[in-house]
UniProtKB/TrEMBL annotation:
Insertion element IS402-like domain span: 1-78
Protein name: Transposase
Any Pfam family the entry gives: DUF4096
Organism: Lipingzhangella halophila
Superkingdom of the organism of origin: Bacteria
Listed InterPro entries: IS402-like_dom (IPR025161), Transposase_6_like (IPR052909)
């Protein structure tokens, strides 16, 4: 994973919860879990097919994906990436134009 993406991600990901009772298994680092999530998303594989080389298991990566989705990490990261690219002048907004046309959906299809 590129360092630049990791730096942006660190700004939006919540801090890991602490276990007051101690013990248990070591929590996988956010960077390795993010790399696993990106792999699943781009490779098109299932969580169960996640190669062990990433560190966290498929269920662990999925659980963290769900946790981060619940607190809108992906939306925050998306906005942060757009803001960063926009501030550098690296976005071509002319390709992002959307026509604001409202259409009523027909019931029953064609």
């Amino acid at each position: 994973m590129p360092d630049g993406l990791w730096e942006l991600f660190q700004r939006v990901v919540p801090k890991a919860p602490t276990r007051p009772q101690g013990g248990g298994r070591r929590r996988h680092g956010d960077r390795e879990v993010l790399a696993a999530i990106i792999f699943v998303a781009t490779a098109g594989c299932t969580w169960a097919q996640l190669p062990p080389v990433f560190g966290p298991s498929g269920p662990t990566a999925h659980r963290r994906f769900t946790e981060w989705s619940r607190v809108r990490v992906w939306a925050k990261l998306h906005r942060l990436v757009l803001d960063e690219l926009g501030s550098r002048g690296e976005l071509d907004w002319s390709r992002c134009a959307v026509d604001s046309v409202n259409m009523r959906a027909l019931k029953g299809g064609s």
